[in-house]
Amino acid sequence: MVLRGYVPTSEETLQTLAALRLQSLNSDFSTHAPFPRLEELFPPHVLHARLPPPPHRAPSKCRGARLRAGLLAGGLWGQALAKQRAERDQRLRGRLREEGASTMAAIVEKWKLLQGMGRPEAMAAYVALVREWPGFGSTLFDVDLQAVRPRLGVVQGQSWQWATLTPLSLQSPVGSGPQHLWLGIGAKAVSLYKPGEPEPLDSFCYGRISSFGASDSSTFRLSVEDRDMLFETSQVDEIAQLLNTYLASASAQRLTRPQEPPTSPPASEPTVVPQGLCPVAGPWRPPVGSSHS
């Protein structure tokens, strides 16, 4: 998850994590130790972000120039453009190699400082660094927030009254308009993150979630109090299954206390999340596939 960029932190910390991984794999620094490839130690997207963006070619306003470009596209002009692109790609590859070498040198210097640290200590230090991110232990899903819509979710007997769905215009903590986000499913809450940002844009305790489910094969609906949030994602089933897992665990803890048996809603109604299911703070184990490192 670190290598895929799902643990937002500084480059300095990412280099320290890479050094700790080398210490765990190879023990103390040695010139004879096998070196993994840089992309197995450090997030590649960080290096690519250092490269200059591709040049933006402004459209020509001269009709004659456009005509000449069209006539020459398959001739000398096209060959010149291809040569320019090849030279630019070669420069970018060279720059990427330089950045990679510089980053690996910084990682090795940090590795040398870890001399004498045993494998268990290196692993513990690695996890301690990753745990500094508040979202540690959550499973992160790439989603596109498509809509935030008002709803009336007050239960009247056994009937649900839904507000009319409106165009995407409702103000919300995460803003309006389609947005690419991380949906973090954790043991205590569901959170929304802007990719790369350590703090969540919004976080919902399970007791605030009214219902959830799939609107279709690529749209996931999450109802929180007076809002419906619609996400486009290719992992609808995975999100629903993980939410069900956490809710079942929270329900089991809740049912250990004496209470009146809940009344099940009709099968035709949306899945309603029982209130008061915020897990009690304490040690927990993240599920397989979560973003612990």
From TrEMBL:
<dbReference type="InterPro" id="IPR051724">
    <property type="entry name" value="Actin_motor_Myosin"/>
</dbReference>
<feature type="region of interest" description="Disordered">
    <location>
        <begin position="253"/>
        <end position="293"/>
    </location>
</feature>
<dbReference type="InterPro" id="IPR000299">
    <property type="entry name" value="FERM_domain"/>
</dbReference>
<dbReference type="InterPro" id="IPR014352">
    <property type="entry name" value="FERM/acyl-CoA-bd_prot_sf"/>
</dbReference>
<dbReference type="Pfam" id="PF02174">
    <property type="entry name" value="IRS"/>
</dbReference>
<dbReference type="InterPro" id="IPR011993">
    <property type="entry name" value="PH-like_dom_sf"/>
</dbReference>
<feature type="compositionally biased region" description="Pro residues">
    <location>
        <begin position="259"/>
        <end position="268"/>
    </location>
</feature>
<feature type="domain" description="FERM">
    <location>
        <begin position="1"/>
        <end position="257"/>
    </location>
</feature>
<dbReference type="InterPro" id="IPR035963">
    <property type="entry name" value="FERM_2"/>
</dbReference>
<dbReference type="Pfam" id="PF00373">
    <property type="entry name" value="FERM_M"/>
</dbReference>
<dbReference type="InterPro" id="IPR019748">
    <property type="entry name" value="FERM_central"/>
</dbReference>
<dbReference type="InterPro" id="IPR002404">
    <property type="entry name" value="IRS_PTB"/>
</dbReference>
<protein>
    <submittedName>
        <fullName>MYO10 protein</fullName>
    </submittedName>
</protein>
